[in-house]
Amino acid sequence: MEKSIKFIHIADVHLDAWREKELKRLNFLAFKRVVDEAISREVDFLLMSGDILHVSMPSIDAIRFLTRELNKLKKHNIEVFAIPGSHDLNSAESSFLYVLEDADLLKITSNMKIENDSLVLLPTIYKDDVVIYGMLGRAGSLEKEYYKRIKDLKDWEQHKDKFKIFQMHIGVNEIMPKEMQIPQNIPLNILPKGFDYYASGHIHKTIIKEVRTLNKRGYICYPGPVYTDNFQELQEMRGRSNYLYVEAIFDGKEWKTSIHHKTFVLRDVIYEEINVNGLTPKQVEEKTLNMINNNNVDDKIVLVKYVGSVDGLISNIDFKKLKEEITKKGAYIVKINTSHLSSKFDDSSIFIENRSDIKEIETKFLNEIIESAKDKYSFDVERVTTLLFNNLSEIKEENETSSTYESRVVGKTFSKIENLMQKEVDNR
Prior knowledge:
The strands form four sheets. The chain has a six-stranded mixed beta sheet with strand order 4-3-2-1-14-15. It is α/β, with parallel strands linked by helices. The longest helix has 26 residues, at 402-427. The chain is built from ten helices and 18 strands. The chain has helices spanning 21-40, 60-75, 97-102, 144-148, 231-237, 281-293, 319-328, 356-373, 381-392, 402-427, and strands at 3-10, 45-49, 79-83, 107-108, 111-115, 118-122, 124-126, 130-134, 150-153, 163-167, 197-199, 206-213, 216-223, 240-250, 255-265, 269-275, 301-310, 333-343. The protein folds into three domains: 3-265, Metallo-dependent phosphatases (Purple Acid Phosphatase, chain A, domain 2); 269-343, no CATH class; 365-427.
């Protein structure tokens, strides 16, 4: 008997990622656009594969917005299946997404139970056609250990003719571009096998790759971000939003899947890289304004990146004035990146706007530590180093004193490391 399904797959929405109200608005509008597309296409369900939120406890604005949009889907009988990503979860692996599940606005599919220190993944059933298993995403991809401990997919044999989906939030090295093959990814051979569709997130790139497991054709899919969450991605994607629209038909023998990458742009992006080598601060300002005069910036996102060594103090460049002048020309918003700007003069007053550079530096530094130290110690360097990074970046709570915050974070960190070390000793 022939049957069919259709769904939309998204990941990496990062609601609340931006401080600027203009970019926050676009972030919200991008998610709304996907919801409207799901309703317009009359899909059966929406898959959200992690990092729906940028923080585990979002702002009231984000909570109200997300609740309203999920309610729209519910009114149109469109189910939502989600897994928490590394940004959705706090250090205790709790997330606001679980509150939305309690409110019956979505279903979390990353359900599991422990049997003799192994993991059994539990299924989520959609009608009589689809079965979904899921794995949450942890900061630093620490869920890699969970994949190694998967023992069983409960009730797997009962779902012979169902369309099988595995939701995850992690990179798979064999299908990544070479520059994205990093220690935090997992190898293909530890993925649960036999699924028609692996709905992943975390990798802010669009990747659709056919794989064969258990003599069955399936697809590992990364839709790309619904909206970018940093300067570099705005630059590379030119403000493009992404989602995957999927149709699958069962002909009585097998499921045949058709995957369509869909994109849209809410605001065009202009990117200019300005080389300042040998220029005085005043000349840097003049060069910037000349560049803007040669572009139509009306209602566009304007990104300006400075590179090179300026002949003078960086603090003498009036970046605030430059942003104001570009905005007067009609720009929707102006973002300035000075992370590659230097001076031969000692200048401690450097204008820093781009938070994403910190994220890039941390990731690069983390990978370098893991690579240089992994053969020098008996313990798992990757797990310990990633744990340190994640715990020491924990946010200070409201009304918490600095000393209490430091004691709490350091104490929790060393306690986790001690437990990790003890487990390694016990397993030897």
